[in-house]
UniProtKB/TrEMBL annotation:
This is RING-type E3 ubiquitin transferase. It is an enzyme of class 2 (transferase). One of its GO terms (molecular function) is DNA binding. Residues 12-46 form the SAP domain. Residues 473-493 have a biased composition (Acidic residues). CDD domains: SP-RING_PIAS4. Pathway: Protein modification; protein sumoylation.
Length: 512
């Protein structure tokens, strides 16, 4: 064992920087720093974590650089020590045939996945790579598999975690995140959990995001795949951290990676959006003019585009209008609500057209922001015109009210109790009586009240006094000579009043 250890250390001393980084990354160690730091880290790794798997990794890396090593190994090997291993293939993928003897169970060790790249996440900024994407290897035919990876934190990394601010109680802004994706070297990979996943960190199970129930009938609940925060269960020291991933082996290949990340909130992303991605009002007008420009090949000429001021997400008036640069529509959604919803359930889908809406393509509409400030709360829709201008659109009820106000003539209010208003005496009504009915009753039509048994007189517009207390006997005898004599003054200008069945003026009303 001692001879093999010395032999492995001599191999490590001859490694290049790339070989040292590969060795440290495969064992979950940091691969950053100068060559002398990498050599010292690799030598400490060989001394403290010496195992058959580590020895195979070292030999494999050495033989990939020096294919003819039998003479050199024999010269460096002490006499009397035989070689207890067979030659290994120079391919890096053969490290998966090694064994991990943790707890007496022989397991294949995970290997770095070839060129697997994970998609960048808006709410996570990668600070350092603690474990590059490493494939989960099945060690038997069982459907439920266990794969283990190890890494350690440097003192600087541990201090970053300790001194980080808290996003909320118990959640720090600097975290160690575990990410899992498909093993595919083509393009960037999104986070994807294998079936029956469970994650154990240093013998303690950590929380994995659960399933979201679906509101649509017949649709199964969906689990949002996002980075798993394993920080609370880590050793914030130079001790080795072991992560065991339990997963269902159903034919698909998965890779696991560990990163030191900075976590952002929706408010942080909104501040970045306001600072870096605001489209000016002039540029928005140019975009509108381009869309409404006349096309001679088109049979339909578009003279305007309607845009709602109501957010399609929350059905409320827009606060900060936002849209995606790659979308063809001008309709916006509220930036604050959109970021908050993706913080809880990341979908990054445009709520207007259901196309991808990544954070880096979001922009704030400067023209619509100005329109929202200029319009009142009751305006829910506007229309863009061909010259880039706009006009508000009111709802049907408001239009009907405006139409009624514009078409209704303004007539003066007529008081039926005042005869001067229409040139006639008021109709018989109890509201015009101020006394008791009978022979002593007086009618006040002009503000003058007759009392006692005398006659109540009304002065019409012409100035003549009309007696309202004439009885039938007086009409039969002379027809009311006093009243007729005064009415003759206006006979030349106005036609004679019509006589009814009882030989009195039609407009006159008796008070009894």
């Amino acid at each position: 064992m001692a001879a093999e250890l010395v032999e492995a250390m001599n191999m490590v001393k001859s490694f290049r920087v790339s070989d040292l980084q590969t060795l440290l990354a495969s064992m979950g160690r940091s691969k950053s720093g100068l060559k002398q730091d990498l050599v010292g880290r690799a030598l400490r790794l060989v001394q403290t974590e010496y195992s058959p798997e580590l020895l195979k990794n070292v030999r494999q890396l050495y033989e990939s650089r020096f294919p003819k090593t039998s003479g050199w190994l024999a010269a460096r090997r002490p006499e009397g020590i035989s070689v207890a291993y067979s030659s290994l293939s120079s391919s890096p993928n053969t490290t998966s045939q090694g064994a991990d003897y943790l707890n007496g169970i022989s397991k294949p060790i995970p290997t770095p996945a070839p060129e697997v790249k994970l998609v960048p996440l808006p709410f996570y900024q990668t600070l350092e790579t603690l474990l590059p994407p490493t494939e989960l290897i099945a060690h038997n035919n069982e459907k439920l598999q266990d794969s283990q990876c190890i890494f350690e934190l440097t003192p600087n990394q541990a201090d970053q975690i300790r001194n980080a601010s808290e996003l909320r109680a118990g959640i720090r802004s600097i975290q160690v995140a575990l990410r899992i994706c498909y093993t595919d070297s083509i393009g960037v990979q999104e986070d994807q959990y294998p079936p029956n996943i469970a994650v154990k960190v240093n013998q303690s199970y950590c929380h994995v995001p659960g399933y979201y129930p679906s509101n649509k009938p017949g649709v199964e609940p969906r689990r949002p795949c996002r980075p798993i925060n394993i920080t609370p269960w880590l050793h914030l020291s130079n001790a080795t951290n072991r992560v065991t991933v339990t997963w269902g082996n159903f034919g698909k290949r998965y890779s696991v990676a560990v990163y030191l990340v900075r976590v952002f909130t929706a408010a942080d992303l909104f501040s970045q959006l306001k600072l870096c991605s605001v489209e000016s009002a002039e540029r928005c007008r140019e975009r509108i003019q381009d869309k409404l420009r006349f096309d001679p090949e088109s049979e339909i000429a578009t003279t305007g585009l309607r845009v709602s001021l109501i957010c399609p997400l929350v059905k409320m008036r827009l606060g900060v209008p936002c849209r995606v640069l790659t979308c063809a529509h001008l309709q916006c959604f509220d930036a604050v609500f959109f970021l908050q919803m993706n913080e809880k359930k990341p979908t990054w889908t445009c709520p207007v057209c259901d196309k991808p809406a990544p954070f880096e393509l979001l922009t704030i509409d400067g023209l619509l922001s100005e329109i929202l400030k200029e319009t009142s709360e009751d305006i829910e829709e506007i229309e863009y015109l061909t010259d880039g201008s706009w006009r508000p659109i009111r709802d049907d009820k408001e239009k009907e009210r405006e139409r009624e106000r514009s078409n209704t003539p303004e007539y003066p209010v007529v008081n039926i109790c005042i005869p001067e208003a229409n040139g006639h005496s008021p109709a018989h009504s109890s509201t015009g009586l101020t006394g008791k009915s009978g022979s002593g009753t007086s009618v006040n039509a002009t503000g003058v009240t007759g009392g006692g048994g005398g006659a109540a007189a009304v002065a019409p517009a012409g100035g003549a006094v009309v007696d309202l207390t004439l009885d039938s006997s007086s009409e039969e005898e002379g027809g009311g000579a006093g009243g007729d004599s005064e009415d003759t003054e206006d006979s030349e200008d106005s036609p004679a009043p019509k006589r009814g069945r009882y030989n009195y003026d039609k407009d006159l009303v008796t008070a009894y």
